[in-house]
């Protein structure tokens, strides 16, 4: 994985902090699917890290919806610590125990991220440069969550699976967007969905 992403030894060490904490906490709370732990670096870390080159140069705010175990938002905060020090990462998670996990990793890894222990709907709106999500909600509902945080140049980076085309078709009844699909480097059936110029249709 380090070869694919050109990771430094220090970046790998910080990611190892995340993986070690995930393995400890998984015994107490269900953070990820138990079977996926055997392949955690590909299934979770690489899957998240592939978004890093897609973050626009100069982006200052990244909002990660439904952060859960920190994928992709916490991985991006860890890798962005040195690569994009101006980037402020916001992790939104309603489950208090998952927020405690996120807080432990943020502190231990030395990355910079603000954790919001609340539902997405309860967040105070602000314009984000980047919005990320993974396994959070079907695309139509996810765009509804994203709407309060859309600015003129917001880029959405959503990790999606085999149902992406159906989700896109359904969501286009209510949303305008410019869409780019990239095959996931971690799963041949996965897709990185890049959405720009997102707006609700007047007749939606």
Strand order in the largest sheet: 3-2-1-4-5-7-6
CATH superfamily: Vaccinia Virus protein VP39
Share of β-strand residues? 15-25%
Main beta-sheet strand count, sense and barrel state = 7 strands, mixed
Give me the strand/helix succession: HHHEHEHEEHEHEE
Proportion of helical residues: 25-40%
CATH topology assignment? Rossmann fold
Which spans of ≥5 residues are poorly predicted at pLDDT below 50? none
Using the coordinates above, name the CATH class.
Alpha Beta
Structural class: alpha/beta
Radius of gyration: 16 Å
Q: What is the level-2 CATH architecture name?
A: 3-Layer(aba) Sandwich
Number of helices: 7
Mean pLDDT comes to: 95
List keywords for this structure.
single chain; 204 residues; alpha/beta; Rossmann fold; seven-stranded mixed beta sheet; 7 helices; 36% helix; globular
How are the SSEs placed, and which strands pair?
Blueprint: H1 2-5, H2 9-26, H3 40-49, E1 61-65, H4 73-83, E2 88-92, H5 96-109, E3 113-116, E4 130-134, H6 139-146, E5 155-160, H7 164-171, E6 175-183, E7 191-200
Parallel strand pairs: 1-2, 1-4, 2-3, 4-5
Antiparallel strand pairs: 5-7, 6-7
Helix pairs in contact: 2-5, 6-7
Question: What does it look like?
Answer:
This protein has 204 residues and is of the alpha/beta class. The chain has one domain (2-200): Vaccinia Virus protein VP39 (Rossmann fold, 3-Layer(aba) Sandwich). 36% of the residues lie in helices and 22% in strands. It contains seven helices and seven strands; from the N terminus they run αααβαβαββαβαββ. A seven-stranded mixed beta sheet has the order 3-2-1-4-5-7-6, sandwiched between helices. Helix 2 runs antiparallel to helix 5 and helix 6 packs across helix 7. The longest helix has 18 residues, at 9-26. The model has no long low-confidence stretch (mean pLDDT 95).
């Amino acid at each position: 994985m380090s070869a694919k992403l050109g990771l430094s030894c220090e970046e790998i060490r910080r990611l190892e902090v995340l993986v070690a904490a995930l393995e400890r906490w998984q015994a107490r709370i269900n953070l990820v699917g138990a079977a996926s732990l055997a392949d955690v670096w590909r299934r979770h870390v690489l899957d998240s890290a592939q978004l890093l080159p897609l973050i626009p140069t100069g982006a200052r705010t990244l909002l990660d919806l439904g952060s859960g175990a920190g994928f992709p938002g916490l991985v991006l905060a860890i890798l962005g610590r040195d690569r994009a020090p101006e980037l402020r990462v916001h992790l939104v998670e309603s489950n208090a125990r998952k927020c405690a996990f996120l807080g432990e990793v943020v502190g231990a890894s030395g990355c910079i991220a603000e954790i919001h222990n609340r539902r997405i709907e309860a967040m105070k709106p602000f314009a984000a440069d980047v919005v990320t999500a993974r396994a959070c909600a079907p695309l139509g509902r996810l765009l509804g969550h994203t709407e309060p945080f859309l600015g003129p140049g917001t880029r959405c980076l959503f990790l999606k699976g085999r149902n992406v085309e159906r989700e896109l078709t359904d969501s286009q009844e209510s949303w305008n967007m410019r869409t780019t699909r990239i095959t996931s480097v971690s799963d041949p059936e996965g897709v990185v969905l890049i959405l720009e110029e997102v707006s609700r249709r007047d007749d939606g």
